[in-house]
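User: Is it possible to get a 3D structure for a protein together with its bound compound? The compound here is manganese (II) ion. I've pasted both below.
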Amino acid sequence: MPRIAVIAGDGIGPDVTREAVKVLRCVTRGSGTELDLVEWPHGADHYLATGTTITDAEVTELSDQYDAILLGALGDPRVIRNEHARDILLGLRFRLDLFINLRPVRLLDPRLTPLKDKAESDVDFIIFRENTEGVYVGMGGTFKQGTPDEVAVQEDVNTRKGVERIIRAAFEHARVAGLERVAMADKANAMEHAGGLWRRVFREVAAEFPEIESEALYVDMLAMDLIRRPERYRVIVTGNLFGDILSDLGSQLAGGLGLAPSANIHPGRTSLFEPVHGSAPDLVGTGQANPLAAILTSALMLRHLGYAGEAERIEAAVRSAVQAGATTPDLGGSLSTAEAGDEICRYLEQMKN
Ligand code: NAD
Ligand code: IPM
Ligand code: MN
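Assistant: Yes, that's possible. Here is the predicted structure of the complex:
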């Protein structure tokens, strides 16, 4: 039985994670699939109460004794430097070596895109974001802090191994899914060292996949083109920071952060699943957070764990609810977070009959 650590986290994290867990229970009820869901208390409250973010022993326990981690969100206005989120979220990405950050962007209903005259099939791409390097590694420092001569250096780390494995993962996905083209985004015109490595490795790996077209783009042009003609894109591979930015941009093309799931994967190891959105301090206590991103995230987790049937049923239920307008206010509906979760369970029950 897969063992899953549930880290609900901060802000709306617990609200949306509760619904994802509810839906996991609905989809597995009577199906013969069993999941061992174990709640972990980590987040801002735990940090403020205990002074610990996450311990080495806990990271080892997750790595050795769990199959997956389902995370809500981390980020709390009381933790100004955000150190607990860095330790837990970025810490797990780095320490479990979760090098693939998979962020699908899929339009479920034309009504939800701000772009005009676009159908579902026009907004349907997946971002392969490098997840263990880039400016996220925290290398650098400050000098003369607090003086007019202050200096801040934040290094951008790109290794051949790191660049190659994410690019290969993107091409392998395109091959398995039968997709015609992989686009790589960098900023080689300004950042020649990092860009040079990305472009060389991209060309080399692309040569192993002759049936798949490849194009190297500048990330600014890609941001523009995703708005102009998203239908050209099916697979995008990019670095950590550009992937972060493009995935928020992409989410908005398909209805916003309330619908955007993500997976942090190292094939064969404990992987981490979380919505793209954060803890949304502005929504805390309103009961209006959209749980569908967390629910779609749980579908990504099930697929990763080998339960493709259950994953598809969740995705179909979400599509039905969205198309029926049975959603929270961010998507134009009037349901609360809990009612939106109930609605997905209702569709799942209907599918069983
Ligand atoms: P955010 O994603 O929390 O919110 C951005 C906007 O999107 C807000 O207007 C919010 O109301 C809306 N939104 C987000 N999730 C939504 C949902 N489920 N339903 C409806 N609307 C939703 O981003 P932010 O405001 O930049 O960050 C808030 C905190 O979250 C910060 O501490 C940040 O570091 C953290 N954060 C954490 C994660 C994570 O844990 N994976 C991701 C992003 C941001
Ligand atoms: C995300 C978030 C994180 C990131 C933050 C909270 C560090 O924005 O998962 O997209 O930048 O990766
Ligand atoms: Mn982000």
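DSSP finds eleven helices and twelve strands in the chain. The mean pLDDT is 97.
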